[in-house]
Amino acid sequence: MVEYRAPTHVPDQPTAAHAALVRRSCTPPLGHHLRTAVDKVLLELSATAEPDRVNPRHLDDLLVAGLAWAAATGDTCRIQPAVQAVRAAREKLARTDVAGARSALREARDCLGRPPDERAVPVAHRFPPMVAVSAREEER
Question: What is the pTM of this model?
Answer without folding.
Answer: 0.65
